Amino acid sequence: MDIQALAETVPVEGVVNLEGIDFVKNGDEYLTFCLGSEHYGVEILSVKEIRGWERPTLIPNSPDYVKGVINIRGIIIPIIDLRMRFAVGDPTYSNTTVVIVLSLENDSMNCMMGFVVDAVSDVLNVEDGDVKKAPNFGGTLPVDMVEGLVNVGDNVVTIISTEQLLTLEDD
Amino acid sequence: MAIDLEQFHEVFFEESLEGLDLMEQGLLAINGGEQPDAEVINTIFRAAHSIKGGSGTFGFTAIANFTHVLETLLDEARDGTRILSTEAVDLLLQSSDCLRAMVGSLQAGEPIDDSTSGPLVVAFEAMLAGDTVPASEEASTTVPDAAAIPSVDSGLSHNDIVEASINSLLGADDEASLNNDGTSGAGGSDEDGGSSGGGAEWKISFQPDPEILMTGNEPLRLFRELAAMGAMRTEAHTQSIPDFDHLSADECFISWTLWLTADVSRDEIVEVFDWVVDECKLEVELVGDASEELSPVVAEESAQAAESPQEPAASAPVSEPEPVPEPEPAPEPKAAPVATPAATTPAAPATAKESEKAAPATPASSSSSIRVGIDKVDSLINLVGELVITQSMLSELGNNFEMEKLDRLSNGLEQLLQNTKELQESVMRIRMLPISFAFNRFPRMIRDLAQKTGKVVDLQLSGEQTELDKTVMEQIGDPLVHLVRNAIDHGIEPAEERLANGKPEQGTIKLDAYHQGGNIVIEIRDDGRGINPDVILAKAIEKGIVSAGEDLPESRIFDLIFEPGFSTAAVVSDISGRGVGMDVVRRNIKSLGGRIEIQSKLGSGSTFKVYLPLTLAIVDGQLVRVGTETYIVPLISIVESLQIKPELVNRVSGDMALYRLRDDNVPIIPIYREFGIEADNTVLENGLLVVVEGEGQKIGLLVDDLLAQQQVVIKSLVSNYKRVEGVSGATILGDGSVSMILDIAGLIRQVSERSQKRRGRKSGGSGSNSQHQAA
Description:
The structure holds 2 protein chains of 2 kinds. Chain A is mainly beta. Chain A has 3 helices and 10 strands; from the N terminus they run H-E-E-E-E-E-H-E-E-E-E-E-H. In chain A, the strands form 2 sheets. In chain A, strands 8-1-2-10-9 form a 5-stranded mixed beta sheet. Chain A has a 5-stranded mixed beta sheet with strand order 3-6-7-5-4. In chain A, strand 9 and strand 10 form a beta hairpin. Chain B is α+β, with helices and mostly antiparallel strands. In chain B, 42% of the residues lie in helices and 20% in strands. Chain B contains 25 helices and 22 strands. In chain B, the strands form 5 sheets. A 6-stranded mixed beta sheet of chain B has the order 14-18-19-17-16-15.
């Protein structure tokens, strides 16, 4: 079974059909996911793993979007619900709710965090020129969180800056 | 096989520092002017001697030379021919500081600063030469030498030229890395007894071709011949020695610079080299007159190595056509040392030098290794053996398991549990060090401080054998120093004041360490003037930390001195800090999971008690359930757990629930309300109450259920998230789920802050400052 056949037989999950995916790597790759009906992407190299939703241990007196902490192989990782943090979509938890575990780092620190999203969609290959600057006309996301927008077929994917995700729970 | 000496450097540094500590302790035990205990002197001598030996081996010549001078003095003391005076002890103490600084700079890969060692050496030599102790006659071979050459290089006199040349290899390295410390040349005056031989000082640069040995010429013989003419110093340039792999024993890679003080003519010198003149680069020049002091000559040499201002013309005819201004840059990458065995010797300092340069400025303070008694290791090995046996038993059981073997299985598991527990305890014990490691610096400090402040202070240590986790030990040192300094500076009164108050003239500071519950308690007790709560309260009100009219218990008032801002300049003189504030002390102790308490009686002294957890990694915990969540309460903070009797609950001052526990009224804190979670049981009646204590305050935590007690491994929340108030960390339970470990002291603060806010009064920032520091 070759890869081409595999790509045809395995249906793309979810209702969204993203085009423009190829296996030629001449740009950055992003993992795209859904929050409600919107599409987002994060740099794929920072993705540690994708796991199903499990009930985390609550952290006392934390903001409501911090769902708690879980244990991944002996490391304690906070779980943040991106839907609640960005006020996008409906924070319900079902069998298909997934947690993307990202390894985030900036100059001063390096940590792992899990982010709750509705679904993971695809891997997106984006050339540098294709990332457009996001217009700043409202929207619930903090401006510096958005690295740029990428057109994928009829949809627009918001690329989230992983460095800024680190500072998510600071405010 | 080239041995990489670098790997031993760290060990040498550690051992030297340990030796210096021993030396210092020994010195402090000596009363100036009295004949000290022989064992004490021996200890000091041994420490100095092994530092000298080690530094010599590794090519740290500056340290070796300096220690040698020290050793000479100690040797006399050891022989009983010299009584160590108070000045001598002071001098020795200073030199141990100086050595520590030298080792420190080596460790950090910095050049050694000889600005302190120089004067000390001079002082030592003055003491050695000046005091007309008959013993100094014995040491005459070294002492006049040292007196003649006012440099560190005393006494390394060599009769055997081979030794001299090997030593000069070390000397060359010394010069290369430490440059111009005025101590370079290692050789000493030889046969004719010092530089007084008269005649001119000649500088001979001798750079043999690599093939020189193959023609049967041996540089050593030439040098021996030269040495017979007068006093000679040699310096070998080893830069061009190749890697050991490329080293050929048949070739000579070393070039030399020789200083000869002798009444000879240039021709006589050149004659010595007659046979080899075609196979080398030779330069002979007159650099000075022997009637001059030797030291300016040395200085001159280092300033302008080759050019001789006295006789530039004379040097031209004899030397080879091409002028070689600096003797070192031998372009051929080969040259064999005198003999093959010696080849390893120059290689070693070369690598040592490299490593010194390459080593980044690592913080010298935290040593990375730990010394463990062999008994502790043996017990570990025993335990591992038992573990292996248990494991094989269990696996055999599992191979063909039948229900009737269930008993044996549960027995085996029990044994496994036992083994694991013991193993864990043993491993933890490895990290434990006696607290004397932290205490040992105090005798010296007290001595110095007492001298400086003019107070008479006696230090009493007890419980030095109490063991404490290494990490805790390293971090508790500075806060303890601060507390002890404060006790001397501000606690102990000057002698006159003490006498006037009917106290003994000598103040006393007691340091004590002991176990209490799961804690280590370190006590710093002074019999000084004590802390005046009124003064502190007035100051706190002035600073706005507390509001006027607030009625605080004394212990709370004392706690105020830990407030940031309270300790910085221009506060109450009795307790004012110096540089590092008391808030830093408390913060450090808190970050270790400990706490500090003050007891003080005006006029009769203060006691600071530092409570520290035995270890940082594992805590004994009581698991409690609240709703769906499981929390862990550290066992050490639990006073008792009980079922609430409704008649003992009192509601006071607007729905604050108090539980009467014997004489205490303990506020009841429902965890579900503090943490904003769901609980099964929200009524007090017949609920379960865990009474805990933190920072001198008792509270009762209302929980749904008491679960098991177990040891839990503390995992940090901070590493991936941030500090959470009321929680000191998290742990992973047996089923893989995460559970929060409660920070009782933090919880109490949080509750009191909230209730103050609820009452609509600003809390004044008490406590909250230290809360955020770790975030």
